[in-house]
Each structure stands twice: as structure tokens, then as C-alpha cells.
Design goal:
The structure holds 3 protein chains of 3 kinds. Chain A is α+β, with helices and mostly antiparallel strands. Chain A has 23 helices and 8 strands. In chain A, α13 packs antiparallel against α15. Chain A is flat, with a radius of gyration of 31 Å. Chain B is about 70% helix and about 0% strand. Chain B has 15 helices and 4 strands. The longest helix of chain B has 27 residues. The chains are: A alpha+beta, B mainly alpha, C alpha/beta.
């Protein structure tokens, strides 16, 4: 069916009927239910027939299809085989496990509980059975089914995805359902997607004026997805200059849109990169900036936070195994059993991990201060060397305890999506880290300026002897300040575990950057650290965007920092001091 | 350390020098020392040069440079460019007929057909040697000139030099034209001699030992001069030195350049003996390791760091085999203990013991230098 | 070495070296070197290879050893330090006098020991996928050559109807070389230059000397690149070919998932993620992404099942200090190490000698071994003919095999062998 025919000849009512026919045909033709079809498809050996069976579900509005397909994709459908029997029965299993780890099973074909020969419901061990297989061809077929189903989905994201798929197929027969859907849609985003999809299909229309209009529409929409199609379009229409010109103009408009998207995107990415630098450096700004201790093991304190997150996650999920090194002889293996949570309950591990990672890092920092650093307050260069030794020891301890491999830290679902506003991606993890950085800065500021402890800290840091004379227990204040700075490092670790890898070398990835950030900001000045972190982040991302070369970008940023410090060794904000030998 | 070279010291140093330069290689020529051992010691002595370069800065001028490994590697790279070009017809690709213009193999892999112009002069060995001195010297001069003029000191100097070596490591790691992460390796000839031949290795060892002895003598002399005195004055209080009319920045700059060249010579000698050089050699932790050698041996003593370099590396050779899992803990722990309990290092301990006995004769004590207060 | 000379030697170098090398090989054993990093950054990957090698030696010894001699492993630590690799290789060859060495992971470590092996006429088996462009008479490459990994993956993509290819890698020699080969290969398959993403670098004459996007080692920020890929893939039918190395995969895939990109919209094939690396990756976010190796743990053959079961059993009873016993998997480099040992054993038994030259001659004639990944055969060019598998990752960290290419000949020199197809307009 062509679009022209539809426009001129068909009444809306007929189109409506067509649409429902299109959606409903398969269901009407097939006598078996959707569940039965899926069960057969799972057992089907022949790949083509398998895909044929799946495709036969196109347009079937049975609500069971979606969850079953999802379960299939996630390897949650198992092929039960009764003992001694060769027939396989596809089943899904319930969430709850009994003490033997057995789960209740439901047959795929009739949604009834799986029964033994005597009619009793069976509970099965999933490990005993194979899960239903699938590959990309099968998943693509499933996706095709779901896409059409999703055209009417109440979930907006799903709906938009389905519309985009149809548009990119550029198949004329997909046009009528889209046009129909367009009539009763008010949601602006869905409308936007529809316009784009319709225009994409119309790029292949027979009428030159429709094609021209479609190209213009895509240009006006700033449709990034259509760039490849428009390029092809310009080639295909080379014999019709006016049409081709519309395509070229549209491409220029889209390129302009992409430029704007990249500018805004770069700004956001710079902000988020800056926030990570800030979170990693703020602890250092306190221990180095205020106390004058060069803590080369700060990176390892970040790693302590990240590993704490890993352990907490393990306890919420299926448990975690630690090998406590004994140095000579076999290590002690500690097994922390898990609570086997899943879904939202598991996601909440992160909320607990945050305070715990602060606490753990603070404790490690406290131990470090008591055992090494307190002897070195007057010898800052030597504190650098001793803490480097500590950092080596800690790295190796991580390696022995958690293994040399990186460990897996899952992001909670509320940290792993994104908002896309006019093609600019705002990752939730990124938004969260920006918010978190603001919260930490605000909290630290309050602590420093509004609490008695903050007052003591500032007093001791300004003049240790004088504060001691006034009766301040400087030892205690040192201890607490260092523990606080270390704890902030731990918090950074909890965050970095959501963005990057967690392994024994984690700290080394951040330590040089963190020191740079503090020094550029001006030692002893928290505001300076904020400004320099954001500045470095923005510069880094802008250079990456402009040069399109991350390697060169990184070298340039570091080079510029070095030159800047050669020029202004005290950083952006100089702390004024009357002391000659500061 | 005493300002004047005593007779005892002169004799001891001469004996050790004679042993290193003449006796040890002599034993090798006679077959009593294996190729493996002479190569190993050659590398240790190169590390000794690196340690001296750290000590000259840290022990005598109070500048803790965390970037000396950069100059060490740069020296290696400069000579390495010559050695890479000298591979010539022994290269993999020439043999298979894909490299008519005799490029280093890694360039052929990346599709180059012509030698980049800045590589060309390195066909000339004397030019490469000149570059070993000039390039690191110039870099140190520029960096020091800008830095010392704005009065960078203390931890800032450390952090900046660390950043410098870090940038350089990132740069070289990604500089495909300099062999990228794989660096330079598989050398065949140096000055026309087969680099794997026993005699060549001995020659390289002798050159290294000689360089170490000469550098040591030079530094020892330098520290006995008035220059050395000002150097230490700057270390102990830069402001006071400044107020006494000494241009501290110029002194520091000079020492920085000299130290960097010493490191660079060490690196150039290291390259043909180690047989490989790549950017991991300039990562910040390598520089920090050199600082460990210094601290272990005893900074501000010149001889201490050499002993530290050899001792720590020997320990490493042994420990990475005997306790691979614990090596980092041993190294880190050693460092913590030295800093906390032996700030003057092992050699310093000897000095302290001597002072302890010397105190019974009060007139001798005044000659010893003050401990460092950075 | 005469007695007096030996004494001198001990006196001089004693403190440093001689204490380590005391054992003289007894008559009924043969010394075999294991040269991997057990500490430092590469320990992550290489420790597994040491484990599987020790397992293989025990397995062979239990069945009577090689030509009646028990294998006595000499394990040394390269400590992720490339000059140290050369030093340790010298030790193995000159002082321990090992008959053969199994080792190295990174190309740079292999290149560092290559001159040593050539000088001392040793024999090294190298088990990890690499860029090719090398052929030493003293090294046997059981590793995947580029045409046993990268080009089959492209074939798979082309068959799946992909039109646009984004090349991404860490900035060092392996990705750069692989991507240059891939560029030639894609052009030879008629993919136009503008459909290859990541950017190009040209030299003065306009010749492309670098294709694809490269990130530094330890790069942690993939925001910009992912947004670029998202724009690149917006039109559909696109895929990513990744030669990122181990650590950087985590931030990349986390960012990739966060941007809403999935295996369905734009799949990624990674050449350096095997089951072992997978343990540190967020598996759930990677479901459906592709891997390409000559072995997967999920291969359903009896040989593989037995191999896995035996290895796990060995692990449980192992007394090697610091060995990880929990959650261990098997992966391609491990199996290629395992195959290497058996190929060597077969060659020795055929040659009836441990002499390197004779063993190599036998290997060059072609020796087959039925390993866990199917049959492998040694070739004259020191590589192996073996099966290539393409797998999709699953949530449990395993690969589901979706395609198998039988008996692929290992070809180390690929550059310049693919001629661009003149694009039909």
C-alpha cells in the first residue's frame, strides 16, 4: 500500500480497520494461544521455524508475550525434563527459594504450575536444567514483535523506541499504523518521534514534493538519526537538483543542531568530570591543604571506600568471600553470607554503602594518622615518602584480600538510566555525582564554619602552638581532621565504583589528578579546590570535544596545569601568610 | 659528610673504583663472572647513577624531585633512537622484503614508509650521545628556569616534577613514532659491535662503572667547593641564603640541570644492557623508587644512595622470586620504617655511630653537617 | 666451570644471585620455565595462566611425564616490569637451563624477552591474542592471530547486516595495528570510508597511519566518546569494534549502558574480554555484547567438560600459595597455554629429544592436539590452525556461542593483504 493511495482513496475508518487487521491478523489466524506458540518456539530446533513462530505473534495483543520474552532473554526460562523422559517442558520459576534452593515452576504453555506424575506441584533446582537458548537473530525477532506491540504501549520510552524502529525500516507499509497513532497522540516527545519516523519513511515516497517536504521536516526536527538516510537521499536524488538541495539543506540544519547538542553536552560532561575530580580531591584538600600532610595513600583510601561498597553489595546479594592474608602460610578465608535480595531491595545497598565507606576509610585514615603520620607533621616531604610506602602496602593487601582481578560493582537501577533532552544525554549517575559533590561541599563548609569542631580545626591549622596554648587538644583535632579527610576519600570511592572499575590499582588512577586539583586551586582553600576542579573538568571535556583525541586532550590539560603552576605556584587562590618559610 | 676529602676516604674510594672498573670486568674476561652477572651489575650501577642524581637534588639541595626517572628514560630514548636505526638489515621486515628503507620495525607495522625527519640525525652515534646530554639538560633548564623563578620549592616542586614525568609517560605511551607502549627493544649493534656479545657487554659494563666513578668524583668535588656550601645553605634555609646575597634560584637551577644530565647518562647506559626501554620506566612510581634507594642508603652522602640502589634492586631480584606476593609489602614497609626510624638511612646510621664515638673527642664533632630540615 | 672458578663466582655474586639457583636438574626430571607477572598491574590476567600451567604439568606428570621425565616447573615473576622479564628470561635460560618456557601476556613483555630467547636458543610458547607482524624462530605463538579474532568478528557483523563500524581502542601497538588491518579488511569488503567511525590520522603524504578512536591507559572518562558513538549509531545498523584493554572496559561499558545503548541497538565486540576479565565487569550491563576467541568455557564438548572439571578439582586441592580458589573460570589464553604444553610434549616425544632445534622442527612439520577448544594444529609459520568462536555474553559471565569458524589458519602477516574493493556506486 502506498501513501498516495492512502491519502486520496482511503477513508479513515477503513484505515482503522486496516490497522487493527494488521495488528490482529496473526492472532486471528492462529488457533493456539500466545503462550502455546512461545512454548513451541522455545522447543523448536530449527532456527528459521523458531523465528517464524515468534514472528507469528506480531500484532498479538496478549499481555503474556512481553514478560515471557523478557524472561527468555534473561535466561529465566528453563527446560524441565522429568526423570527418564525425553520430553522437555519449558517452565518459568518463582522468585522465592526454599531451603534447598528449589523454586516453584510454572509451565509456559498453559501458565499452570508444573506437576509431577502424581499431580503434586513440583519445585525444581534451576541449576539442574538448561535455560532456553536465544541469540541475536531470535532477540531481534522478539524485538520486532514487541515493537509493534509497543506502538500502543503505555510506557513512553518503549513506545518511542518502537516508533523509531519503524521509521528506520523506511518501509512504506509501516506508514499507515504510524499515521493512525499520530492522530490520538498528545505527548510531545512521542509526537516528535512520530514526525521523524513518518518523514523518514516518506523520504522514499514516489512524489518528489513529498520527498522534499520530508527532508525539510527532518531538517527542522534536527533529526540526528536521519543523517545517514539523508546522505543516501541526496545521492539517490542527484538527478533532481531541487529535491537533493532540500536534503543538503536538511543535513546542514542537522549538523548545526549536532553542534549545539555537543556544546551543551560538553558543558554537562565537564561539570560531571569536575565533580568527580572534586569529590576525589576534597578529602585531599583537607589533609593536604589544611593539615599540610602529603598523603600519597589518599588514592588507596578512595579504594577502601570502593571496596566497602563492593562488600556491602555482596552482603545484600549472594555473599562475598575475602581472603585475609596471613603473610606466611595459607590465608584465612572469610565467607560473608548474603541476604539474597534482588530488585529494589538490592538497589538500596548503595544507600548503606555510602555511610559505611565513609566510616571505613575514616577508620583506616585514623589508623594511618596514629601509626605513621603523627610523627611526621614537621617533615612534610617525609610524610610524602612514608605514605607512599603505605600506599604500596595497601595496594598489595587489596590484591591479596580481594584478588588481583577487578571486582564487580553493580549500579542500582536508579543510577543507570538517563534523561535525554533534545539529544543531550544526562546520565543519572552523572547528575547524581554533581548533586553529591554539591552536598559534600556544602556539608564540609558547614562543618568548618558552623560547628565547634570546625572552629578548632581552623584554629589548629592556623597556628598549632597558639591553639595548644589556648588549651586545644591539638593531637585530637589532628586525628579527627585526618579521619574526616580520609572519610571523604572513602565517599569518593563509593561513587567512583559506580562509574569505573574497582581494583587494587584504583587509587593510582586518581591520585595525580587529585593532587593537581588541590594545588591548582591553592593549598588551604576549599573554594579554590572547587573552582579548579570544575575548571579542569570543563577544560578536559572541551579539549576532548574539539580535538576528538582523548590522548592529546589529556596531555594538553596536564601540560597547561604544569605551566600554570610554574607561573603561579600558589594556585588560583593564594593563602596569604606573613610567615617567610611557609 | 665532611667537607674535605680525607685520605682514608680517598683510598677506600679508589680501591672500590679499581675493583668496579678493572677487577670485576677482568674476572668476567677470565670467565669467573657470568654474562648474566655482569649485565645485572651493569644495570645496578646505572641505577646507582640515577640514585646520585636524586641525592644531589634531595640530599644536598633539599629539592625532592619525583621526576628523575623521566631524565633517566629520556637519556635511554636518545641513545635508543640510534640503536633502533642500527638494527638495519637484521630487522624482521627487511628480511621479509617489506622494509626497503630500513625503518625500525614498529614504524613498518604502523604503515610508515619514510623515516620522520627528526629521526634522521640519529644515524650518527656522536649526535645521539650529544642528545643524551642536551635534551634532558634543556628540559631541566626550561622547567627549572620557569619554576625556580617563581620560587617553587618543597612539596610543590615534588608534585610538579611528578606531574611532569606523568605527562611525559602518557605522551610516550601514546607516541607511536617513539614505539608507543612497546618502546624500543631487540637492539642488535652498538657502534658496530654485536650487542649480545660477551665482550660488548663487558665494554658496556666498564663504561658504566667508569661513568659512575667519574660522576661520583665530580659530585664529591662539587660538594666540597664553596658551591656545595651554598647548596646546603639553600637546603637548610633558602630565605637566609637569599638574604645573604646568594641567588638561590640560580644555584638550584644549576644543580637541577646537572642532576638531570647525570640521570640521563645513567639511562643511556642502562638501555643497551637492559635491552628494552619503554614508557613504564618514566611512570611516577619509578622515580619514587629511586627516592627509596636514596632514603635507604642515606641521603646527602652520595655513597649511601649507590649502596641503596644496588641493595634494594638486589633485594627486588630475590624477593620477586622468593615472595612474589609480598614484594610490594616488603618495599612499602621498608620505606615506612626507614622514614620513621632511620631518616638518615643505613649509611647515616654509620655516620651517627661515628659521631657518637667522635663526641668523646669534642673538637671533631663540629665538622659534621646539620641534618636536613626541608 | 671448574671448581676454583665456581668458588670465585660464588664469592663475587653470591649475595645477589647464586643462592637462588641451587637445584641441579635430577636425571628423571625436565625443567620447564613459567614466566608470567604474578605482581603488578598485569598480575590480574597472568596469574591465571600460571595456575593453568601448573595444573597441566601435574596432569602430565601423573601420567608419567614427558618421555619418562617428570616436569619440574621453574616459576618466575616478571612483576609487570618489562626489563625484569628479560632478566628473568636470561635466568631461566642461562642458569636454570629450562627445556622450554611458557609465558608472557603483553606484546611488550614478549618483545622484551625475544632477543634473549634468540640469543640463548630457547623456546617460548606465547598464548595471548596479539597484533601479529612478528615471527621469531624461537617463539611458538599458540595465540590468536588477527585473522583468528578480528576479521571473523567483522565477517559476523557483515552477515548480520551491519553497515557502520566504529573502531575504538587503547592507544598502543596492538589496537593500532589491528585497526589498520581491519580498515583494509572493511574496505576490501566494500564498506565505504565514511561508514568507518572513530577518525583517521594521515601522514604527510595523505596515507592513513591510524584508524579509530584511541584512549590513554587507565582512561576513566568515556562520556564524550559514548556520546559520539550514540550520534554515530543513531541511524541504526552500526556496531563498535573495541580493542580497549582490560581495565578501561569497565568505565566504557558503564557509560555505554547509562547512555541507553544496548547490544540490540549497537553491539560491541571486544577482543580483550574473556571469561576471566569478565569477572570484574558489570555483566548485567553487557548482556548480548560479543566476544571472539578460539575457546569459550561454554563449549559443549566432552574434552572441554573434562578439562574444566579436572582444573576445578586441581584448584581445590592446590597448595600453591596465594592461589584463588573461588569463582574461577577458564578462558582462551588459559586453554592456549594448556594446548601449548601438550603440543610441546608431543613434539618432544616425536623428536625423541628435548633439543630446541629438533622440537621446533617437529612442530613446524605440523602436530595436532585435541584440546578443550577442538583440534589445534601447529603450522610452519609458528602459529596454530584452530577453530574460532563468536560468543554473546550472558548475565552469568559466560559466552553463548553464536558462530563457529572451523580450522582457521593463523596468519601473522596480514597488513597489505586485503585490497580495497572499488565501491560500486
Amino acid at each position: 500500500m502506498t501513501y498516495r493511495l492512502l491519502r486520496t482513496a482511503l477513508l479513515p475508518g477503513i484505515a482503522q480497520a486496516m490497522f487493527w487487521f494488521l495488528l490482529g491478523s496473526a492472532a486471528a489466524l492462529s488457533a493456539s494461544t500466545a503462550r502455546q506458540t512461545i512454548a513451541t518456539a522455545i522447543l523448536e530446533e530449527d532456527a528459521e521455524k523458531k523465528i517464524g513462530l515468534i514472528n507469528s505473534l506480531i500484532g498479538n495483543a496478549d499481555p503474556a508475550i512481553k514478560p515471557l520474552f523478557d524472561a527468555w532473554k534473561e535466561d529465566a526460562i528453563f527446560l524441565y525434563k522429568a526423570e527418564g523422559s525425553a520430553t522437555k517442558v519449558p517452565v518459568s520459576v518463582g522468585e522465592e527459594k526454599d531451603t534447598d534452593g528449589r523454586q516453584a515452576a510454572t509451565r509456559i504453555d498453559d501458565a499452570q504450575p508444573l506437576k509431577a506424575a502424581d499431580g503434586q506441584p513440583l519445585r525444581i533446582l534451576t541449576a539442574d536444567y538448561d535455560s532456553a537458548e536465544h541469540d541475536s537473530a531470535i532477540r531481534t525477532a522478539m524485538k520486532g514483535v514487541l515493537d509493534l506491540l509497543d506502538l500502543a504501549s503505555p510506557d513512553r520510552a518503549r513506545r518511542i523506541q518502537a516508533i523509531e524502529m519503524l521509521g528506520k525500516s523506511q518501509e512504506a507499509e509501516k506508514l499507515p499504523p504510524l499515521l493512525l497513532v499520530q492522530k490520538n497522540v498528545t505527548d510531545t516527545k512521542v509526537r516528535h518521534a512520530l514526525r521523524e519516523a513518518i518523514a523518514l519513511i516518506q523520504l522514499k515516497d514516489e512524489k518528489p514534493e513529498t520527498r522534499t517536504a520530508a527532508a525539510q521536516e527532518l531538517g527542522a526536527l534536527g533529526s540526528i538519526a536521519s543523517q545517514d538516510f539523508l546522505q543516501q537521499f541526496v545521492k539517490d536524488n542527484a538527478d533532481q537538483p531541487t529535491v537533493a538541495r532540500a536534503g543538503t539543506a536538511a543535513l546542514a540544519a542537522i549538523a548545526n543542531h549536532v553542534r549545539n547538542v555537543n556544546i551543551v553536552g560538553t558543558g554537562f560532561r565537564g561539570l560531571s568530570k569536575g565533580s568527580i575530580l572534586l569529590v576525589a580531591a576534597i578529602g585531599l584538600a583537607i589533609t593536604f591543604g589544611l593539615m599540610g600532610v602529603i598523603n600519597m595513600a589518599h588514592g588507596e583510601l578512595i579504594a577502601v571506600g570502593a571496596y566497602t561498597t563492593y562488600v556491602v553489595q555482596g552482603i545484600f546479594a549472594t555473599g562475598v568471600v575475602l581472603q585475609i592474608p596471613t603473610f606466611f602460610g595459607q590465608p584465612i578465608t572469610v565467607r560473608l553470607s548474603g541476604m539474597n535480595l534482588s530488585g529494589t531491595a538490592l538497589d538500596n545497598y548503595f544507600l548503606l554503602a555510602l555511610p559505611l565507606s565513609f566510616l571505613m576509610a575514616a577508620l583506616v585514615g585514623l589508623a594511618l594518622e596514629r601509626s605513621v603520620i603523627r610523627f611526621l607533621y614537621r617533615r612534610p616531604l617525609e610524610s610524602l615518602l612514608a605514605t607512599w610506602g603505605v600506599s604500596l602496602v595497601l595496594q598489595q593487601l587489596f590484591r591479596l584480600t580481594f584478588g588481583a582481578n577487578n571486582v564487580q560493582v553493580y549500579s542500582p537501577s536508579w543510577l543507570s538510566g538517563n534523561w535525554t533532552v533534545s539529544d543531550v544525554i544526562f546520565g543519572w549517575n552523572r547528575v547524581f555525582v554533581i548533586g553529591f559533590a554539591i552536598a559534600i561541599i556544602f556539608g564540609t563548609h558547614l562543618l568548618m564554619t558552623k560547628t565547634p569542631l570546625g572552629l578548632l580545626i581552623r584554629a589548629v591549622m592556623q597556628n598549632r602552638q597558639m591553639a595548644a596554648c589556648m588549651g586545644v587538644k591539638t593531637e585530637r583535632v589532628n586525628m579527627l581532621t585526618f579521619a574526616f579527610g580520609s572519610g571523604l576519600g572513602g565517599l569518593a570511592g563509593a561513587f567512583i565504583s559506580q562509574l569505573g572499575n574497582v581494583g587494587p590499582g584504583l587509587g593510582q588512577d586518581y591520585i595525580v589528578d587529585a593532587f593537581m586539583t588541590v594545588v591548582v586551586g591553592g593549598v588551604g582553600n576549599l573554594v579554590g579546590t572547587v573552582v579548579s576542579a570544575l575548571g579542569i573538568g570543563l577544560m578536559d571535556q572541551s579539549l576532548q570535544q574539539i580535538l576528538l583525541n582523548p590522548v592529546l586532550g589529556k596531555i594538553l590539560v596536564l601540560g597547561m596545569i604544569i605551566l600554570f603552576l610554574q607561573w603561579r605556584p600558589a594556585g588560583i587562590f593564594v593563602t596569604k601568610s606573613r610567615s617567610l618559610e611557609s | 659528610m665532611q667537607r674535605h676529602v680525607s685520605k682514608v676516604e680517598l683510598v677506600t674510594a679508589s680501591v672500590i673504583a679499581l675493583f668496579l672498573v678493572v677487577v670485576f670486568p677482568g674476572l668476567h674476561a677470565a670467565g669467573a663472572v657470568s654474562d648474566f652477572t655482569i649485565k645485572l651489575w651493569g644495570k645496578y650501577l646505572c641505577y646507582g647513577l640515577l640514585a646520585i642524581s636524586v641525592d644531589l637534588l634531595w640530599g644536598y639541595t633539599g629539592l625532592l624531585s619525583l621526576g628523575q626517572a623521566l631524565f633517566f628514560s629520556l637519556g635511554g630514548y636518545m641513545l635508543g633512537m640510534n640503536l633502533m636505526l642500527m638494527i638495519g638489515e637484521d630487522g624482521q621486515y627487511f628480511k621479509s622484503g617489506n622494509n626497503p628503507s630500513l625503518l625500525p620495525d614498529f614504524m613498518v607495522i604502523l604503515g610508515r614508509t619514510e623515516l620522520p625527519s627528526f629521526w634522521k640525525p640519529f644515524y650518527n652515534f656522536p649526535f645521539a650521545v650529544a642528545m643524551v646530554v642536551l635534551v634532558p639538560g634543556l628540559l631541566a633548564f626550561l622547567f627549572g628556569f620557569l619554576g625556580f623563578r617563581s620560587r617553587i620549592k618543597g612539596v610543590y616542586f615534588s608534585i610538579l616534577t611528578q606531574a611532569l614525568t606523568y605527562v611525559a609517560a602518557v605522551f610516550f605511551q601514546n607516541a607511536l613514532i617513539m614505539g608507543s607502549n612497546n618502546g624500543f627493544t631487540d637492539f642488535k649493534r652498538i657502534l658496530g659491535c654485536d650487542i649480545r656479545a660477551s665482550a660488548t657487554q663487558r665494554g658496556l659494563y666498564i663504561a658504566t662503572a667508569l661513568a659512575l666513578v667519574l660522576v661520583y668524583a665530580f659530585c664529591r668535588w662539587l660538594t666540597t667547593t664553596k658551591f656545595g656550601l651554598v647548596q646546603r645553605a639553600v637546603r637548610d634555609s633558602e630565605t637566609r641564603a637569599l638574604f645573604s646575597g646568594y641567588a638561590a634560584a640560580n644555584y638550584k637551577l644549576f644543580v637541577f640541570v646537572v642532576a638531570s644530565i647525570i640521570g640521563s647518562i645513567g639511562g643511556a647506559l642502562y638501555l643497551p644492557q637492559a635491552g628494552i626501554l619503554n614508557p613504564t620506566e618514566m611512570m611516577p612510581e619509578k622515580s619514587l623508587e629511586a627516592v627509596v634507594w636514596c632514603a635507604v642508603g642515606g641521603r646527602g652522602t652520595l655513597i649511601g644512595p649507590i649502596i641503596g640502589a644496588i641493595g634494594t634492586n638486589a633485594l627486588k631480584s630475590w624477593a620477586t622470586r622468593a615472595f612474589p606476593d609480598l614484594w610490594l609489602i616488603i618495599l612499602g614497609g621498608l620505606f615506612i620504617l626507614i622514614v620513621l626510624f632511620l631518616p638518615k638511612g643505613i649509611f647515616g646510621l654509620l655516620g651517627q655511630a661515628r659521631d657518637f664515638f667522635a663526641k668523646r673527642k669534642p673538637e671533631a664533632a663540629s665538622a659534621t653537617a646539620e641534618p636536613a630540615k626541608p | 666451570m671448574t671448581l676454583s672458578r665456581s668458588l670465585k663466582f660464588l664469592a663475587l655474586a653470591g649475595a645477589i644471585t647464586s643462592t637462588i639457583f641451587t637445584a641441579q636438574a635430577a636425571d628423571d626430571t625436565v625443567k620447564v620455565g613459567v614466566l608470567h607477572s604474578l605482581s603488578g598491574t598485569m598480575a590480574i590476567s597472568e596469574t591465571s595462566l600460571r595456575d593453568v600451567l601448573l595444573f597441566t604439568f601435574d596432569e602430565i606428570n601423573a601420567k608419567g611425564g614427558v618421555m619418562g621425565k617428570k616436569i619440574q616447573p621453574v616459576v618466575v615473576d616478571g612483576a609487570s616490569n618489562w626489563p625484569l622479564f628479560a632478566e628473568k628470561a636470561t635466568q631461566l635460560l642461562e642458569q636454570d637451563k629450562v627445556a622450554v618456557t611458557f609465558g608472557c601476556w603483553t606484546s611488550v613483555s614478549r618483545k622484551s624477552v625475544l632477543p634473549v630467547f634468540e640469543k640463548d636458543k630457547g623456546l617460548l610458547f606465547y598464548p595471548v591474542q596479539y597484533e601479529g607482524e612478528e615471527l621469531s624462530p624461537n617463539i611458538f605463538y599458540t595465540a590468536e592471530a588477527v585473522n583468528q579474532q578480528a576479521t571473523p568478528a567483522v565477517d559476523y557483523y557483515l552477515a548480520a547486516g551491519k553497515k557502520k563500524f566504529y573502531l575504538l581502542g587503547s592507544d598502543y601497538v596492538y589496537p593500532q595495528t589491528t585497526n589498520l588491518v581491519l580498515l583494509e579488511y572493511l574496505l576490501s569488503k566494500g564498506v565505504p570510508l565514511e561508514n568507518i567511525g572513530g577518525g583517521f590520522k594521515k601522514d604527510e603524504s595523505g596515507k592513513i597511519i591510524s584508524a579509530g578512536k584511541y584512549t590513554p591507559f587507565g582512561h576513566t572518562d568515556y562520556q564524550q566518546i559514548v556520546s559520539e558513538i550514540k550520534q554515530f549509531t543513531a541511524g541504526g545498523k552500526a556496531c563498535v569494534i573495541s580493542t580497549l584493554n582490560g581495565d578501561t572496559n569497565v568505565p566504557f561499558f558503564k557509560e555505554y549502558a547509562a547512555a541507553g545503548l544496548t547490544a540490540e541497538t549497537c553491539p560491541v565486540v571486544s577482543f580483550s574480554i574473556s571469561e576471566d576479565e569478565f569477572r570484574g565487569l558489570p555483566a548485567k550491563q553487557l548482556v548480548g555484547q560479543l566476544g571472539c576467541w578460539t575457546y569459550f568455557q561454554s563449549i559443549k564438548s566432552d574434552a572441554n567438560k573434562k578439562f574444566i572439571a579436572d582444573f576445578q578439582k586441581w584448584l581445590k586441592s592446590s597448595t600453591v600459595p596465594g592461589i584463588v580458589k573461588e569463582g574461577r573460570v577458564t578462558c582462551s589464553p588459559m586453554v592456549l597455554s594448556y594446548n601449548g604444553v601438550y603440543l610441546w610434549k608431543a613434539a618432544v616425544e616425536k623428536a625423541k629429544s628435548f633439543d630446541v632445534e629438533k622440537v621446533v622442527a617437529e612442530l613446524e612439520k605440523g602436530i595436532s592436539f585435541d584440546g578443550p577448544g577442538g583440534k589445534v594444529t601447529s603450522q610452519k609459520n609458528h602459529h596454530l590452525t584452530k577453530n574460532v568462536f563468536i560468543g554473546e555474553t550472558k548475565a552469568d559471565g559466560q559466552f553463548k556461542i553464536v558462530k563457529e569458524y572451523k580450522d582457521v589458519f593463523g596468519e601473522p602477516f596480514l597488513k597489505g593483504t586485503f585490497k580495497p574493493k572499488t565501491a560500486a556506486k
